[in-house]
Amino acid sequence: MSDYRDVNRANWDERAPVHAASAGYDLAAFARDPAHLSDTVTFDRPLLGDLGGLRGIHLQCHIGTDTVSLARLGASMTGLDFSPASLAEARKLSESAGNPVDFVESDVYGAPGVLGNGAFDLVYTGIGAIGWLPDIRRWARVVATLLKPGGRLFIREGHPVLWSLQDGRDDDLLVLEYPYFEHEEPLIFNEEGTYVEADHTFVHTTTHSWNHGLGEIVTALLEAGMTITGLVEHDSVPWEALPGVMTRLPGGEWQVKDRPRRVPHTYTLQAVRTTVY
């Protein structure tokens, strides 16, 4: 089997310019309005608190919309991604927005090797990121290694229950189809499109991904020397995760139409590094 990183990198390299040109990401708004923030960071803002003067690293930053948004909130930001095409778009965005961000190419597991240990006050990870990683405990060790003692992790992510649901059904049933817990072998998907509207015929359509249970994520962080300081589950998600059964809310979030309180859509988890190795 091909290395999952090579397979996924090819997919994200092809997605990057398509996403950058899409109305969904609306990169022009960053140049047009110096106060503009991504919808995701706008949602996160009440829990993020004051970022002024913090040195932050955004893991799996993609084309940089959230990274630039965090810089606009006062953090000195670095963005890390394994896709050179994504980073090229992120650098263009940073320049046009007028918010300097240092973008670094690496996969997550290699981050301490290129960024150093204990260099950051904030590790930020956004929606749809950790599912591309096979080992959540290794991820947690990377997070702890990057943070200064007292430094904070902020992650808002798709809930593992949401990732377990089957999409594309002809009815409105919510069916648990995929693993909730971490699994050794990847889930392999072959999808012709992407999550934004785009007039593009994709060539690299295969992806490898994994789910991670909420308890596994929390336990991994505790084992890595982190203290959990917050865990909030939300009934909305920033994209139409289940086409046909969701409705769009004001502000750009999406929610299951029928009894949305049945299903955790996303969660925000915060943790502080308390153990020094």
From TrEMBL:
Q: Name one GO molecular function term.
A: methyltransferase activity
A Pfam family this chain is assigned to = Methyltransf_12
* SUPFAM superfamilies membership: S-adenosyl-L-methionine-dependent methyltransferases
The source's superkingdom equals Bacteria
Provide the alphabetized UniProt keywords: Methyltransferase, Transferase
InterPro entries referenced in this protein's UniProt entry, alphabetically: Methyltransf_12 (IPR013217), SAM-dependent_MTases_sf (IPR029063)
Q: Check the UniProt entry and state the signal peptide residues, or none.
A: none
Task: Kindly list the biological process annotations in GO that this record carries.
Answer: methylation
**Methyltransferase type domain span:** 58-153
- Provide the protein name: Methyltransferase family protein
